[in-house]
Design brief:
Blueprint (H helix, E strand, L loop, with lengths): L1 E7 L9 E5 L2 E5 L4 E6 L3 E8 L4 E8 L4 E6 L3 H19 L5 H21 L5 E6 L3
Parallel strand pairs: 1-7
Antiparallel strand pairs: 1-4, 2-3, 2-5, 5-6, 7-8
Helix pairs in contact: 1-2
């Protein structure tokens, strides 16, 4: 049997599980989890990665000790920085220091990339690639 190591590049966001299948076997992976999978032979496999609302299918060649990297298109820094800015502006908005228009515009700008990749470019939502062990 060959070991195929499945990992995800993202650490926390989004907070949902990724579900994926390699061949006929189904798995789930939480943010930051490292999962080791045993496959019977090296070769081309159909890999399907999905969340609750998006899925992506690719055909990859998996070899012994390959690392299958599954990443979300939007980096963690975007969520951390964007959430911090929205929370700060929300507090300032509640205190009446900034206008509701500025707060609404900031929230809209925060969600635009998420909406774009979810509804208009769902095939780009996941980055799936195979890396060999160095």
């Amino acid at each position: 049997m060959n070991n195929i190591i499945v990992t995800t590049k993202r650490s926390v966001f989004p907070l949902t599980k990724f579900y994926f299948s390699i061949g006929k076997n189904n798995y789930s992976i939480r943010p930051g989890e490292l999962k080791k999978i045993e496959l019977y032979e090296e070769g081309a496999y159909e890999v399907i990665v999905s969340t609750y609302w998006i899925n992506k299918k690719v055909r990859l060649i998996l070899k012994n000790q390959s690392i299958l990297s599954i990443a979300h298109i939007i980096p963690d820094a975007y969520y951390l920085i964007g959430t911090a800015i929205v929370v700060c502006l929300s507090i300032l908005g509640l205190l009446g220091i900034i206008s509701a228009v500025l707060l609404s515009g900031t929230i809209l700008l925060y969600f635009l990339p998420l909406i774009y990749y979810t509804f208009f470019k769902p095939n780009d939502y996941f980055k799936i690639e195979v890396k060999g062990i160095d």
